[in-house]
Amino acid sequence: KSSVQTIGEEQIQNPYTELLVLKGHQDIVRFLVQIDDCRFASAGDDGIIFLWNAQTGEKLYELHGHTHKITAIAPFSSSDVTEEKTDLIITASADRTVIVWDCASGRQVQKVSCFHSTVKVLRKPFLQRLNVWLSGGSDLCVWNRKLDLLCKTSHLTDAGISDLVELPKNCVAAAVGKELIIFRLSASNNGSEGWNILEVKRLVDHQDNISSLVSVNDLTFVTGSHVGELIVWDALDWTKQASECNFWDSSVHPDVQPEIKLSQSPHETSVQHLTSDEECVFAAVGKGIYVYNLQMKRVITCQRTAHDSSVLHIEKLPNRQLISCSEDGSVRIWELREKQQLPAEPVPTGFFNMWGFGRANKQANQAAKKMHENTPVYFLELVGDLIGHSSAVQMFLYFGELGLATCSADHLIILWKDGERESSLRSLTLFKKLAQNGDLQLRL
């Protein structure tokens, strides 16, 4: 029997009671990227990019240009003072090309085919400040807005860069296998548009391949690995601030509640995804969700079996809610809540202390009680279970009032809508139409 928590049919706190199924893709849909408040793009293994309206579900454009699966996608808004703001997206493919698309027209703006390997990561961390963007594969490349290659590193490894995160002082951290390589970007001193990439440091603290990176703020970033290591780094000097390489192992932290540990099976301890709200890091680890408090430097709560299969993506909403999606095809909504603590009871030791004798025992009990009262205890409550996909849900986008978009290996995209809001909008539209018709009849 599955140990996964269930919610039942009555989901009072789940607003997503309507759904729109968006069809068009012919293979696994792996990526969703937000363009603006109501538009997003989808891409996957069929090599096609679709642009959608998140409010209506309307298909805006179908973009053809790649011959193999899409491996990375990123938004890319032009910010030229002389030009109007243009919403663009960049896509990379296993066909070793990168294409820039205009979201307003669906046209190709530029195409680059000079890559020696597949680009796995696209980032625009320095776009606003330095007006350049980065691509990661077997090399780290720096490009300008016109897709001119400014500089690149020498061949790193056959595995290449799996993820990138922006750091202060024009630096970037690249995950390359087990290593975290820090690079610094600098403009040439001769006044030309040339750039330099300098390798500053290699961090080899992880025991296995790095699977996820997240920037917390200008001072901190966090990495996770395939064997469940989580490391908190200083973003300025790249030193290790804290680590929880065994934070799921109760033998390492005997004071931690028994449920706050992971299955010891290696394939169930991989950190698939990390996200942060600056106070906590939320980690998708194996089948579970773990909340790591950065100030306390420990896990404050978890759902060890949040899903029946691996959790692929997790995000913190503006409220105290989390959304997670899994290989099992489900999407679940969680709320981080604080338990109401009961007064702590003393735990006596020894014969005399059993009867409360001795000053040391009294002081120890008071200290333990005070510590217990001052330490909040949290838990994750399941408040919504969205069942609609028939295969692994790869990721999702949250659009606030417009709802939630999910993509899956079943080739579908689903827009999850607030049923009450959609019903009231339809009633309002109908009322306006009736009012307009009545006004027209009066005029006639």
UniProtKB/TrEMBL annotation:
Mapped WD repeat ranges: 22-62, 63-111, 304-344
Gene3D superfamilies to which the protein is assigned, alphabetical: YVTN repeat-like/Quinoprotein amine dehydrogenase
Places the protein is found: Cytoplasm
UniProt keyword annotation of Lipid biosynthesis present: no
Provenance organism: Illadopsis cleaveri (blackcap illadopsis)
UniProt-listed Pfam families: Beta-prop_WDR41 (PF25178)
InterPro entries to which the protein is assigned, alphabetical: WD40/YVTN_repeat-like_dom_sf, WD40_PAC1, WD40_repeat_CS, WD40_repeat_dom_sf, WD40_rpt, WDR41
GO cellular component terms given for this protein: lysosomal membrane
Gene name as annotated: Wdr41
Membrane-spanning residues: none
PANTHER family, alphabetized: WD REPEAT-CONTAINING PROTEIN 41, WDR41-RELATED
Name of the protein in question: WD repeat-containing protein 41
Function recorded in the entry: Non-catalytic component of the C9orf72-SMCR8 complex, a complex that has guanine nucleotide exchange factor (GEF) activity and regulates autophagy. The C9orf72-SMCR8 complex promotes the exchange of GDP to GTP, converting inactive GDP-bound RAB8A and RAB39B into their active GTP-bound form, thereby promoting autophagosome maturation. As part of the C9orf72-SMCR8 complex, stimulates RAB8A and RAB11A GTPase activity in vitro, however WDR42 is shown not be an essential complex component for this function.
Keyword ATP-binding on entry: no
Top-level taxon of the source organism: Eukaryota
Keywords: Autophagy, Cytoplasm, Repeat, WD repeat
One BP term from GO: regulation of autophagy
Subunit structure: Component of the C9orf72-SMCR8 complex, at least composed of C9orf72, SMCR8 and WDR41. The complex is formed of two protomers, each individually consisting of one molecule each of C9orf72, SMCR8 and WDR41. The protomers homodimerize via an interaction between C9orf72 (via C-terminus) and SMCR8 (via N-terminus). Within each protomer SMCR8 (via DENN domain) acts as a bridging protein between WDR41 (via C-terminus and N-terminus) and C9orf72 (via C-terminus). The C9orf72-SMCR8 complex associates with the ULK1/ATG1 kinase complex.
